[in-house]
Amino acid sequence: CNSASIMFLLLLLTCPMCLPKGDNKNLTYTYSWPKCKQNHSAANVAGFNSLPGHIKDFLYYRHCRHFPMLLDLPDKCGGPEGSADVFLLLVIKSSPKNYNRREVLRNTWAKERLQNGVWIRRLFILGTQNSGFEKTTLNNLLEIEHRKYKDILQWDFHDTFYNLTLKQILFLEWMETNCPHVRFMLNGDDDVFANTDNMVEYLKNLEDNDGSKHLFAGHLVKNVGPIRYPDSKYYIPVQVYKSESYPLYCSGGGFILSGYTARTIYNMSHSIILLPIDDVYMAMCLEKAGLHPESHSGIKALGLQIPDKSADPYDPCFYREILLVHRFLSVHMLVMWHHLHNPQLNCSLSTKM
């Protein structure tokens, strides 16, 4: 048995009523988009045959902007008009196999709740993975989660690193229809630790911005360009992106944006060809709109640098005032969340950042 099959069986044992029944007609919803076909003319690009397979696939399907939806939640935000009541929407990029990560998030920082008088809602956005029995098992797992938690959006595209931009655009298209008036969003990976209590406080204290004005804040990356080394995870050949520089962007591990900015990015995306690096692509959309990302010192997309090398790197006092830290193991996330909500937590001056 593989890990996905084991997770699927465990969930059935702990929640047998969650098993999808019948033909699931009322569980799934498919937009009327046909399956996108390969653009064979992409092979005419100079040097195409020398490119790695995943780059070739990206170029073959780069034009594809619409995919059938497998799991939908059109009423997640209370309908288009009710979406204004959602103060912070947590949009978490996950992969079908990452069930354990999603479970921890549901019980820690991504828990749906009324926080400081405003509503936090949660969504995981996914495609499909693998093929054959493995793909079927993972899709069944997501259907069970969807029925139990009502927090899964899934499209019928291959969920890979090079399709993260596609995932972002598909979500923004969905948001435009179903949650157009959401005030703010956290967009992040499923391995970030987000102090959403602090996030709500920060957003509520913004001057003259209730989500109807521009906000795009995170860990700024500047003066960098595409990596041309084929062995790199972030490899971008000139056939995909010719320029040697990227615009100023926020690291994609996690950033905060307003509903206004999310809509602006979506509108700009209609006229900008897709780039596999999703955080750079969103910056391209901002740049076209004449907007810019900004730095927030509480967002640590590259991890938290502890000044005292002899200190416990998971001392909760280091994390008490941050908004987000990237690359957090699930076990540390669960413990950290409970530590931070311990009323007896006592932080000395020696453990402040």
TrEMBL record:
<keyword id="KW-0333">Golgi apparatus</keyword>
<comment type="pathway">
    <text>Protein modification.</text>
</comment>
<keyword id="KW-0735">Signal-anchor</keyword>
<comment type="similarity">
    <text>Belongs to the glycosyltransferase 31 family.</text>
</comment>
<dbReference type="Pfam" id="PF01762">
    <property type="entry name" value="Galactosyl_T"/>
</dbReference>
<keyword id="KW-0732">Signal</keyword>
<keyword id="KW-0812">Transmembrane</keyword>
<dbReference type="InterPro" id="IPR002659">
    <property type="entry name" value="Glyco_trans_31"/>
</dbReference>
<dbReference type="GO" id="GO:0008499">
    <property type="term" value="F:N-acetyl-beta-D-glucosaminide beta-(1,3)-galactosyltransferase activity"/>
</dbReference>
<protein>
    <recommendedName>
        <fullName>Hexosyltransferase</fullName>
        <ecNumber>2.4.1.-</ecNumber>
    </recommendedName>
</protein>
<keyword id="KW-0472">Membrane</keyword>
<feature type="signal peptide">
    <location>
        <begin position="1"/>
        <end position="20"/>
    </location>
</feature>
<keyword id="KW-0808">Transferase</keyword>
<keyword id="KW-1133">Transmembrane helix</keyword>
<keyword id="KW-0328">Glycosyltransferase</keyword>
<dbReference type="GO" id="GO:0000139">
    <property type="term" value="C:Golgi membrane"/>
</dbReference>
<dbReference type="GO" id="GO:0016266">
    <property type="term" value="P:protein O-linked glycosylation via N-acetyl-galactosamine"/>
</dbReference>
<keyword id="KW-0325">Glycoprotein</keyword>
<dbReference type="GO" id="GO:0030311">
    <property type="term" value="P:poly-N-acetyllactosamine biosynthetic process"/>
</dbReference>
